Amino acid sequence: MTDLTPREEALVLPIVAEVAKEPGLPVRDLGVLIGKNMGMTLRVVQKLVDSGVVERRQIRRSQSAGFERNYSGLFLASKSDGA
């Protein structure tokens, strides 16, 4: 994650903390929670996904109108090395 600006690097810990508090959090909601613009939030999230810190999973959410919609939720990456 070396190509992040200092301002973007400052978002890493708040993003990881919010995802740990609320697994399945959509990126759109995450941007609102940390109070940063969506472009910067998406860039940092993608770097965290690429480095294996968080992962995206498809989730189905029921809407109040009675239909379901798929979205990509964020989760802390699970360790698969058996440690």
Structural write-up:
The structure is a single chain. By secondary structure, this protein is α+β, with helices and mostly antiparallel strands. The chain has a single domain, classed as Winged helix-like DNA-binding domain superfamily/Winged helix DNA-binding domain (Arc Repressor Mutant, subunit A), CATH 1.10.10.10. It has four helices and three strands; from the N terminus they run ααβααββ. It has helices spanning 6-9, 12-21, 27-34, 38-50; strands at residues 25-26, 54-62, 68-76. A three-stranded antiparallel β-sheet has the order 1-3-2. A hairpin with a 5-residue loop joins strand 2 and strand 3 (68-76). Helix 3 (27-34) crosses helix 4. The protein is globular, with a radius of gyration of 14 Å. The two termini are 24 Å apart.
CATH C-level class is Mainly Alpha
Tally of helical segments: 4
Unreliable spans are none
Mean pLDDT comes to 87
Report the C-alpha radius of gyration, rounded: 14 Å
Summarize the structure.
The chain is α+β, with helices and mostly antiparallel strands.
Topology readout:
Blueprint: H1 6-9, H2 12-21, E1 25-26, H3 27-34, H4 38-50, E2 54-62, E3 68-76
Antiparallel strand pairs: 1-3, 2-3
Helix pairs in contact: 3-4
